[in-house]
Write a structure and sequence with these properties.
The chain is built from 1 helix and 56 strands. The strands form 15 sheets. It has a 4-stranded mixed beta sheet, with no helix packed on it. It folds into 3 domains: 38 residues, no CATH class; 289 residues, 6 Propeller (Neuraminidase), CATH 2.120.10.80; 273 residues, Kelch-type beta propeller (Neuraminidase), CATH 2.120.10. The model has no long low-confidence stretch (mean pLDDT 91). With 629 residues, it is mostly beta strands. The two termini are 25 Å apart. The protein is globular, with a radius of gyration of 28 Å.
Length: 629
Amino acid sequence: MSTYKNLIGKDINFLTTDPDNDAAEGQIWYNSPAGVFKNVSASKAWASSASMVTASRLMSGFGIQTAAVSAGGNNNTANMATTQEYNGTGWTLGGNLPEARFNAGGLGVETAGMSVGGGDPPGARSVKTFEYNGSSWTAGGNLTEEREGPFSFGTETAGICAGGESLFPTPAGGVQQVNSADEYNGTSWTAVNAMSTTRYLGAACGTETAGVVFGGEQAGGAGYTSNAELYDGTNWTAGGTVPSAQKVQQAASGQQTDALLINGFGPPYTTAVTEYDGSSFTTGQSTAIPRSQLGASKQQSNTTSALAYGGINPGVSGGPRLSNTEEYNISINVTTGAAWAAGGNLGTARNRLGGAGTQTAGLAFGGSVSPGGGEPTVTNLSESYNGSSWSEGNNLGTSRYGVQGCGPQTAALAVGGVINPNAGAGATKDTEEYDGTSWTAQPDTTNAFYLDGVAGIQTAAVTRGGAGGPPGPLGNYTEEYNGSSWSANPGTIGTARYAGSFVGTLTASIYCGGEPPAPVGFLSETYDGTNFSAGPSLVVRFQRGGGAGTQTDALIFAPSTASVVTQQYNGTSWVTSANNATERDSVASSTAATASAALMSGGGPGVKNNTEEFTGETSALNIKTITTS
């Protein structure tokens, strides 16, 4: 009789705690405190990921889960030329298409992809194709006829574009759906055998010699087709019946014999995901977001991973155009996407307040309690956060707004601000230290300082720029604090601006965004304790927001750009992360927190008292208890 060890090569161990790494795969162990046997099993799951830079639908989508592209599409107001790239963590911007377009086909990979056909403005159909090299677009060969909403699959040197809506002349004139197909050799398109069904606005994936198309809308008001068709490089053959909930406006990922059909409009909008093996469909793991007209990582080699993004659903928060991204994986790990969640409210609503501390030991102080319209009413209120609720403590010595802070809750620093705006006073030089109980006055900064970042801790801090206002001149200086006095740093200073976010330590920090508006709002600069150096551009223009983390792992959020986009930095590049729930700026942020556990509270426009907590993406083993049921 074979034992478990003989079969698997591992013993059944008696453990007091469950293992926490991939070495547990294939093991069975006995958890002695719980009195049960356990193992690790693979699971199929979709997890929320970073939001797109710009919400979009009917985009050209191509690539793989860790290197995907969304090109063009339609946002809430217009068709776009925007290209957005996903790197497996978040989204950033690539080179723009030569012209705005939506409902174009997509094929290929991030560094060798194509946008095919499409329309702009509505009513115009295009024969144009564009090739993408990972950074910029160039014109490719023209299709043999106009196509909007076509089915496209394959690669940049061996691609197929079939069906769609065309302006090709008909006896009745006008637009019609077609079943014709074109093949691309890297230079030009050639007409090949047509599909059996005229259709557009469906999904497709696979290669030139092993492709598949799913569903779509038919000509002449015939409704939606449930046909799938297979292409072998020459001929089209029947490929099974598409589920009714996913007949149109869906997305596909994978290959001809191993594909996922993702969401769609039945109607209604659906979260359905279906697995396809080349002939039949089986129910897969549903997404969290119901939507249609979305993009997907269609070039996956199989269905162990996929990406779904964007789309439309007027009934979903953030609709009708969506920026939501979801990742699909079959893995022994369960991933929970990064997200903002509501925390306890401040006792007093206010904006342009200072912040310090961490997510579970936060500090908010000063600010304006005026909702707008006239000069702000400043306050010296100071509140502490314990991870769930705020409590009022001893007040700042000086009432002010536009004050900035750094350090932990029990050793915080408050710098600058505006004390008496009603008297037309400009920014102040006041500095105060907090010991967890009381604030005490410290020596002034050399320069007046308003609404700008402070990085570091109470005994080793640095200020950058600032404004001598309002309105006041724009500052361009650096001062360092040693716990007892401020001194000017004569090192290299970057672009003059204020209202940015300063994240990190005295000797390793990064300054992000600022005013006046673009282009300085896209700038980031790193500081080494002496000099500022140019860093990579932000994804979204940023000013008057909050920040947390370090020079190589930073998070910035709540920018005053009519945006809820959160941006994350890994030491090399900026990408989007999970959107915060409330559009706001001038918040208190937990400047001593990590980029995976940030806190923001208050802010404007108007005055707010709500708090949001950020938790970065986490992953854990999918541990199961073995039972007899």
